[in-house]
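Kindly review both lines to help learners:
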Amino acid sequence: MKRAPLTLAAAVAALAALTGAAALTAPAPAGADGKAASAARMPVERSLLVCPGPSSSDIAETTYTSFTPGAAGGGKGSARLLGATKDAKPVLEPKEPGKPVGATANGADAPALTGSADGVLAPGWTAQLTTKVSVGRARGVLGVGCTAPGTDFWFPAVSTAKGREDYIHLTNPDDAAAIVDVKLFGPDGLAKPDAGTSENIRVDPKSTKTVLLSSLAPNTQLADATAHVTTRAGRVGASVQVGEEGVGADWLPASADPAGSLVLPGIPADATSVRLVAFVPGEEDADLKLRLAAPGGAITPAGNEQLHVKAGMTTVMDLKDLTRGEPGSLLLTPADPAKASPLVAAVRVVRGSGAKQELGFVPATGPVGARATVADNRPEENTTLLSLTAPTADAKVKVTASPGTGGGEPASQEVTLKAGSTQTLNLAPAGGKGSYALTVETVSGGPVHAARTLSLPHEGVAMFTVQGLSDDHSTVSVPRASQDLSVLTR
């Protein structure tokens, strides 16, 4: 049956319903000459974020930070991050763009968060939680960016082996229960779960649930595996918290969506161990070419030029001290461009040696696109390092450091990147006090990938965490007024 075209108002409403995390403003109507108005990019009017519960340690020290890029005085808006409970209390309430706000919480009772921002605070709204645990099995700096809720997540580099405790944190921001499935894929394919434990996991409304991954397949120890999290109903925020005997703890964020080429940005210069974990969800194997994008350009690591990844099976490659004293980013591309099998990937990174080792993860990350932001950077010298990578073509970006939560003047710098290279930058606000945000905007050229390394050493241990930056999707393309949008009703 033929459907009549939707009105513009109905189209906007339908698009808003589909995006879930963004409401739209209609573009201007057709011009006086009767010609249809072209598609317009408009700022989103509402954004949602979900943050996992920080730590189970009684001595954990957690900092929450929230920030929206842009200039103050541009209109009205509101934003609130609340504890993920039915009796939620506000934890962070930003008041205007361009000014970060922070809060702290100590101990194991620090909550997971859910929240929304609207008006001028919605486009590019970001939040970060950073936890420091000084001693014990969970010691380390654990950092993770809060994310929009979703329905599909890939986590290469998880483990169920002895000495590892990997917990997946599932947070439901909505008023209805979410139903979640978790599948584990090892080197031999799908791991057989214990009966009924990995399917139909219920996450109650406005709540968070943690699942120990080793409990899903108690009869199989997987040194390296890939977790696939999907929802049957509802949506969740998902992150994996990793604790490993002797090397500390950190968050493992989800990998970028499966793609034929991947960039894993921000591998520290002094990494003493780099282990790549890759997985192909489809039915065709992947043959990959490996390169390291270093300051001087892309190089091929000797002895690790290529990697074969069997479909449906987690594959591991030990890259040892890949960076050899220079910061870099790992580039994975098809050995044959005509045979590109989409995959996901992450690297497990260790700094230090002996009893002074510290663990972190670098998953594949999408490009910064028009703009991307990371919050909770620290003004102390050599604490914050931003890595910028241009994998395929020369590019130029503008980096802006916001004022700190305690004041200061913003600072900005343009950075030119050569194709195949990684450049690092330590930029802070003038006179900045407290944590600040870093925003990267593409000025010209090819795609740019970015990651921030936050280092907070403690008693000789190089405690650190790496967070990737990806496009904040602060604008949405709104179709022209005369377009037939009946497809949205099907």
In short: Confidence is low (pLDDT under 50) at residues 1-36, 485-490. The chain has one helix and 36 strands. The longest strand covers residues 436-445.
